[in-house]
Amino acid sequence: MITRKFDSATQSLIDRAESIGISTGVERLSNQQPQCGFGQLGTCCRICYMGPCRIDPFGDGPTVGVCGATADTIVCRNLLREEVGGASSHVGHARHVVVAFKKMLEGKAPSYKITDKDKLLEVAKGLGIETDGRDEKEIAKDVVEKALEDLSRQDDEPMNWIKFRAPEKEIKLWKEKGLLVSNAHNEIEEAMHRTSMGNDEDPVNLLLACLRIGLVDGYAGLHMATDFHDILFGTPKVKTIEANLGVLDKDKVNIAMHGHNPVLSEKILEWAGKLTSEAEEAGAKGVNVVGVCCTGNELTMRRGVPMAAHNMQSELILLTGAVDAMVVDMQCIWPSITRIADCFQTKIITTESFVKMQGAVHVAFEPEEADKKAEEIVRLAIDAFKQRKGKDVFIPSEKSVGMIGFSVEAIIEVLKKLNADDPLMPVIDNIKNGNIYGVVGFAGCPSIKLRDTYMTEIMVKELLKNNVLVVTTGCTAHICAQAGLLNSDATEKYCGEGLKTVLKVLGEAAGLDVPLPPVWHMGSCVDNSRIATLLKALAERLDVRISQLPVAGSAPELVQEKAVSIGTWLMALGLTVHIAPHPRILGSPVATKVLTEGLEEITGGKAFVELDPVKAASGLLDHIKSKREALGI
Ligand code: NFS
Ligand code: SF4
Fold first, then answer.
1. How remote is the CA of residue 211 from the centroid of ligand 2, in Å?
2. Nearest ligand to the C-alpha of residue 46?
3. Which of 162, 291, 565, 612 is least enclosed, having the fewest CB within 10 Å?
4. What is the pLDDT of residue 57?
5. pTM for the full predicted model
6. pLDDT tens digits for 608-628?
């Protein structure tokens, strides 16, 4: 019997699972207790077969592994390998999109086209590509070349995407510190090489390698992915959407899109529309595509698709019995889902050759045959609906409304209504006068360990009360949407007077009758790039380093390796990043000291670990206060 209490929609499905005897993550987490202390501290090493070795943090046992590695070495090697996992995911994602784009340009993937020509030109110009009087396709080919260079060059030139997207002051600093990376694949290889048995022993050198992998993640992963997504599918605009599990519709063919890559999900959405009449012939009232995790964020940002579930709910949504197909591509897909789906008529459909699941239907999705495959997948969902029709389902009624689509372009468009020549000025003025006390970006996952503490919601509300504007991405955006933090009512309800005033003015400027929401949904996890673009614009407009701005980041419910590599990138950029639960570094005095203090002297950024939401918010407020004071505002 588990006595934890989650939000009502989540809880109702956990209860349902328990009543019908299906295991969920909450039960499995409880079965894992107590979790290994060595693992939590990062002091377990299994890099070679003389091990596994573990270092006792209290000094009661061995202080070095069989080879002589210390806790510092072991922890830093483990951290770097975590980051390699994260950066590989993001770079792999970006590479998939670049390759699809390249095939499109070569005429091999005719299902795709360039949707946002302005973005193409912006990216091309940023990469130093000649655009005047040139054919769009030729420009696009050059953009692809620049992307492929960042995955293959051997000349030690800094990555094109760093030169394009990173602030100049930070590039200069990274160069001085030997952090400028050149080729994502080389860096990943070198990080694996240096952490294999008998190489880098120096914890500080290993931590510097972590920063390098952070930069790989930020530029050859996040920024590159976002830029190509926008060119291919359009840059998000502000719109209103619905969120939470109540967006499922028992009378429709429900397709839950889960994973990360819009190259797949955009096509499924398109074919869901095209096959509506087939769904109706099957007795459904239509096809209802809903979003889970980050592909859900991509779909909602561009197409207004409802945001059904965050990562912790990705298995729970299946317990509704109302999902006809869950279509997945890559990352964050829990192995449990096929076993749960098996209890219902739900089909799990995998689409990538490197992401297969026992019990799932595999439809190999290649850009060359995107339409054919998407059609096949939607038909599989319609077939599953036929088997479900008439059977009982259990859909939680919870549903909230939110505004999404806050790309940098969308934000600037609103700001231009206030100051066409210098759109950032209204924001800067309001930061100066304190109406906007600071800005905090919330990113990352829902932690099954912390979700019932409402870590994210409490922190966000504390900050809003203190006039801190919040921007969000990833599954944290799902949490905020479900908590009703993405709508205008939240502005009235939770914001301090200063922030409320600003959001009202911005709401008017946007042509809305209502204030803008206090939490701006800026996209999926790769779209943390959008937050960085906004920071770069602000810092460059003020001619300061990013570390001087009254801003911070938070991954309040860290789960994935990807969140670790993103966090390191942000620290390299100069941000203070709040993290909970504890990252696996506490077993190393050096890693703990460097990441929570020493790094500040190098990049201006640092990690701030705090598990209590109110204390975490107040720590971020203190940080913002000190930055404001240093700027003399
Ligand atoms: Ni981000 Fe997106 Fe969610 Fe966490 Fe996973 S979906 S890439 S890693 S769990 S926020
Ligand atoms: Fe043990 Fe060293 Fe081998 Fe790690 S590399 S398992 S610490 S002997």
1. 24
2. 2
3. 612
4. 80
5. 0.98
6. 999 999 999 999 999 999 999
Distance 141 CA to ligand 1 centre (A): 31
> Which of 320, 319, 324, 261 lies closest to 289 in space, CA to CA?
324
Q: Which one of 43, 74, 195 would you pick to mutate in the ligand 2 pocket, going by the greatest count of ligand atoms within 8 A of its CB? A: 74
pLDDT digits (tens, 9 = 90+) for 517-529: 999 999 999 999 9
Query: 71-233: which CATH topology?
Result: Substrate Binding Domain Of Dnak; Chain:A; Domain 2 (1.20.1270)
Distance 201 CA to ligand 2 centre (A): 12
Atom 4, ligand 2: residue with shortest CA distance:
45
Any atom of ligand 2 within 6 Å of the Cβ of 71: no
CATH number for the region 245-388 comes to 3.40.50.2030
Q: Which residues of 497-522 are buried (b: 16+ CB within 10 A; e: fewer)?
A: ebbbbbbbbbbbbbebebbbbbbbbb
Residue 542 Cβ contacting ligand 2 at under 6 Å = no
Whether pLDDT at 3 is above 80: no
Task: Pull the structure tokens for residue 427.
Answer: 């924001």
**CATH 1.20.1270.30 occupies which residues in the chain?**
71-233
The DSSP H or E segment spanning 376 is helix 370-388
pLDDT exceeds 90 at position 287? yes
Structure tokens at 583: 């990252």
Q: Residue 587 and residue 51: Cα distance in Å, rounded?
A: 18
Q: What is the rounded end-to-end Cα distance, in angstroms, of the chain? A: 53
